[in-house]
Amino acid sequence: MQEEVNHKTVAITVKATKVTGRVLLAAVQKYLAYLKKKQVEHFTPQGRQSVKQLMGHRVNTSSIPLNGDTRLFDRVARKYGVDYAFHKVEDGKFLLFFKGGQADAITAAFSDYTKRMMNRQQEKRPSILGQLKRLRELVREKAPTKERAREAAYEDR
Fold this sequence. Notes:
By secondary structure, this protein is of the alpha+beta class. Among the domains are: 16-44; 51-122, Ribosomal Protein S8, Chain: A, domain 1. Helix content is 52%, strand content 13%. It has six helices and three strands, in the order αααβαββαα. Strands 1-3-2 form a three-stranded antiparallel β-sheet. The longest helix has 23 residues, at 21-43. The radius of gyration is 34 Å and the shape is elongated.
């Protein structure tokens, strides 16, 4: 138990000629302000967030127009660890807000995003429903038609 108490103690050093109650109070207040600042930093959101939360960081923000898939950009931005927010302008068009200090990371993420979008447009996979319709027609053509033949009823029975 003594070890637990030792680990939870705090050492405060104060430069003063005479330690009075006021000096000790000021030192404790500064330490509490430091703890509060660390706690606020710990609870600031990271990654995708609302525009209001991003503006709450109190840093310069920039914006870029984004046309396309926001979920794909989410995956790429998570990889680069940037803080960003989307603001919907029109249907399928967004404004991407980000911190001004993270401009280099955003440009790297944006270039990776555009590369992935170009690859996705080139692939053009056929739709599954179209494939099912085509296969259904092939099965109908190849399926043998069954004919039922009835025997004539004999009168001598």
